[in-house]
Amino acid sequence: MLRQALRRFSQKLVRRPTLKEPVAENDPRRSLSTLNLVALGVGSTVGVGVYVLVGEVAASQAGPSIVICFLAAGLSSMLAALCYAEISARVPHSGSAYLYSHVTIGELWAFITGWNFILSYVAGTAIVIQAGTLAFDILLGNQNSHTLHESITQQVPRVLVEHPNFFVVSLVYFLIELQTLRFSQSFMVTKVITSVKLLVLGFVIISGFIKGDLHNWKLTEKDFLKAGLNGTSTLGHMGSGGFAPFGFKGILRGAAACFYAFLGFDNIVTRVEEARNPQRSIPMSIVISLFICFSLYFGVSVALTLMVPYYQFQRGSTLPEAFLHIGWAPAYYVVAFGFLCSLLANVLGFMVPICQVIYKMAQDDFLFPALARVQTGTCTPLMANVIFGIIAPIMAFFFGLTDLLDLSSIGILLTHSLVAIFVLICRYQPERRNWGNEAEMQKENGPAAERLTLQGLLFPCSPTPTPLSGWVVYVCSSLLALLLTLLCLVLAQWSVLLSGDPVWISVVVVLLVLIIGITGVIWRQPQSSSPLPCKVPALPLLPLLSIFVNVYLMMQMTGGTWAQFSVWMLIGFAVYLAYGIQYSLFFFSAFGALTPYWICHLQVFSPS
């Protein structure tokens, strides 16, 4: 009795939806070219993060070595982008990592992915709200915050005085309402805003090479003393000077925070059913847009740290303030205008995907059905917008900028790791014309027709994937994810390892042997030979490298961040176990459920 109950429970955790055929290639709704998709990816990714993130991370975590932080975050994001590119070509349906996890691994991991996606984008929007306050202060000559501080300090709690985001919250609500309207030229507006952002950031990069001073990367104790910072020239809240004033630990910590800057490139996969030749244009646009974003971030971080000594950055310092330091006052307002454009683009860029995911999870009955209510006439998810509009401002009021950056980054890193696992599993599965077919799922989950032997494990007889080989890869991938997490936990204590403790070194060696052995088992299994325009090379090594880097960077987060993340996940599991697991739909057509929402928005966001 108990055994049967546990079996039914485990089957619920891995059940998957059925997908219908994608939109036909000649469908008139397929109107987005590769250039349109690149503009969408760059516009969604390059935003206010670069205006506040560089100063925030350089001031307290990395100093000039922030360029290495962006390099590490960019390389890890590129690995994730390759995984997104392959899985979008393999599952050509509009969606996100949530949909991909649902059709490849099952509903439990789909819920975890979607719940983390919501956290990342809500925290990202809260960052935009806080950054928006800074943008308005810059354009108004810092009068906004001064007036509010003087007028309400005695009447309201201190936390509200320190985060006066009232005007920007009103703007967010206006943009939410704006989303419900129909704009035939909306995609053109997106491209114009993206062009403005690129021009402004290009100006910042050129200015840095003109007015920059290489000495700012080689600061010493004498420079601290000359600046009147005696007493902080040793290791402290300003570091020790030089290129990496906070050491290797600061670089790792900064790289984890810099992941927020790459939030948004995965929005491209939400437009699969609007793209011409999506199996080619989607992977290409993902890689191109991410490369452009990384180049901009790298250039801006180099320019800013050359123009301004890192110790002069304060918490909340913004990119325009660097031009006051070098005496270019007019440029201060030019860059502030680009800051404001990024604010508008980011809020709009975050609203659409997060509302899609909330709507989709409600349609799948993971979340309460009220969240799937659609506004009559515009087909916009009404309750999803309302929930989004409530949670994001609350987080902006009561969380600090660093906490929000860490929460957003930890959600992104976990989602990227899951996508890498999806690719690893999909490549070794038997060919399925229709992902999630129940009969094939039962066949896959019960490989009784084949017998598992040690020889068959290392030397499979079939040159093509079988249900048994797919099941082996499924189990091995799960074990590798666990072992890589344990390895990262141990390596996070690198100071103990460097001391030569034989116990910790033995643990690392055992974990490495197990990881190499299980990786070898996966490598020996037959891969799918189906032709795809984009495949992750060097399987299974690159997906595993992506998982390792992402998890290791997650280990750099503070205990407070992990506590906040744990609370969020506990709330999610409570919702899933109390409601989602009982009501989620087994035979669910992903495209069919998205049709009412997508038909309307294909008209709203398609270029004319």
Strand content: under 5%
Backbone shape: globular
Helix content: 55-70%
Radius of gyration: 25 Å
Average pLDDT taken over every residue: 75
Biggest sheet details: none
CATH class identity of the largest domain: Mainly Alpha
Q: Kindly name the structural category.
A: mainly alpha
Put simply, the count of helices is 25
Q: Give me the count of strands.
A: 0
Which architecture of the largest domain would the CATH scheme give at its second level? Up-down Bundle
Distance between the termini: 61 Å
Within the CATH hierarchy, at the fold level, what is the topology of the largest domain? Amino acid/polyamine transporter I
Determine the CATH superfamily of the largest domain: Amino acid/polyamine transporter I
**Poorly predicted sequence stretches spanning 5 or more consecutive residues:** 144-164, 181-185, 437-448, 586-608
How many domains in all? 2
Order of helices and strands: HHHHHHHHHHHHHHHHHHHHHHHHH
Mind explaining what this structure looks like?
The structure is a single chain. This protein has 608 residues and is an all-alpha fold. The chain has 2 domains: 31-143 and 164-221 and 239-424, Amino acid/polyamine transporter I (Up-down Bundle); 425-431 and 454-530 and 537-560, no CATH class. It has 25 helices and no strands. It has helices at residues 2-14, 34-45, 48-62, 66-90, 97-104, 107-139, 143-152, 158-162, 166-179, 186-211, 221-226, 247-258, 278-307, 321-325, 329-363, 382-398, 401-427, 438-445, 454-458, 467-491, 494-498, 502-524, 541-554, 559-583, 590-605. Helix 6 packs antiparallel against helix 15 (329-363) and helix 20 runs antiparallel to helix 22 (502-524). The protein is globular. The model is unreliable at 144-164, 181-185, 437-448 and 586-608 (pLDDT under 50). It is found in: Endomembrane system. Residues 535-584 form the Cationic amino acid transporter C-terminal domain. Keywords: Amino-acid transport, Glycoprotein, Membrane, Transmembrane, Transmembrane helix, Transport. InterPro entries: AA/rel_permease1, CAT_C. Belongs to the amino acid-polyamine-organocation (APC) superfamily. Cationic amino acid transporter (CAT) (TC 2.A.3.3) family.
